[in-house]
Amino acid sequence: MTSSTDPLNRIYAEEMRHYPYGYALYQPASTAVIKPGIVGYFDSTGFWSPLADLNDTTALKAAGLTPPKHPLSPAPPQDQTWGPMTSKSVTGHDLKASPSLGPAATGLPLSASVQIKYTSSSSFGAVLVTNPPVTHSAFYFQSIFSSWVSENAGALLSGEHKDDIHANGLVVVTQTYSTDKCALTAWTEGKGEAFLAFDAEVPGVGKADPNFSWHEGNSISGWMGYEGSSPDKMVVFLGGLWFDCRKEGFGTLFRSTMSDETQQDAGSRADSIVVTNRHGETYHLDGKVLGAPLASEAQ
């Protein structure tokens, strides 16, 4: 379990994991730097730093890393339409059904066909809204990626970013959910509220309309908006492998930015790897699956 003293990005990921899409990004990142086949880490603020691209054999060899032993197998991209997504303690209320608040209180245009007030029953609340379509991109066969980490962990932990990996762990991205535009709000200031309006009915609120647009209203913590720069989109959820990293002789495990609590129900355990780098330092990498793994074969 997370606590109110944890970084907001960790609380957000924990509170959004009731959705079956993997790890939720409090700071959505561009598909230019995070996509299936990318290896990197999240720092303590949730900012993503890429380290290697398993899709680029030439760059891997130039960095002293080996390419995967087997070709990566992409799954067919799938476009989806999502309604507003909320943390598990947040509930939406249709303001049109009981119009007791005016524009000054909500920050919403009266002309909007759907107006929603979101409230939280706990100290934390979050709302994410995405422009359709949300594209699911993925590779099959988890074992290819865990084998690559086993073969290249020594080189990664011998290089200039070994301290970053030790502090933050290592993430291998195997699937993403991305959109060209999104907005989110999250708060920890007690039982807060946020308002959204839509110009058409939306999934989860009313009849799905693939062309809906939204208006961000008032929120106790404000809204953060993100837009991709075409052709790139913004990743809002990811799945893959996460390896926590412990250096032998350092005692208890450093608490990574993607904690055990965040991942305990997100998937099954992956491989545990022990590697000694070229400086004679021994590291233990304990792997877990982020999100629901793809089927072992294409259907």
Outline the structure in words.
The protein is 15% helix and 37% strand. It is mainly beta and 299 residues long. Strands 1, 2, 3, 4, 9, 10, 15, 16 and 17 form a 9-stranded antiparallel sheet that branches. The protein is elongated, with a radius of gyration of 21 Å.
Keywords for this structure?
299 residues; mainly beta; four-stranded antiparallel beta sheet
Question: What's the gist of this structure?
Answer:
The chain is 15% helix and 37% strand. By secondary structure, the chain is mainly β.
Instruction: Round the mean pLDDT to the nearest integer and report it.
Output: 84
- Beta-strand percentage? 35-45%
* N→C terminal distance: 36 Å
Integer-rounded radius of gyration: 21 Å
Low-confidence stretches: 251-257, 259-267, 292-299
Query: Strand tally, please?
Result: 17
Share of helix, binned: 10-25%
Q: Mind summarizing the main beta sheet?
A: 9 strands, antiparallel
SSE string, helix = H, strand = E? Answer: HEEEHEEEHEEEHHEEEEEEHEE
Question: SS-based structural class?
Answer: mainly beta
Globally, the shape reads elongated
Determine the number of helices (DSSP H or I, runs of at least 4 residues).
Answer: 6
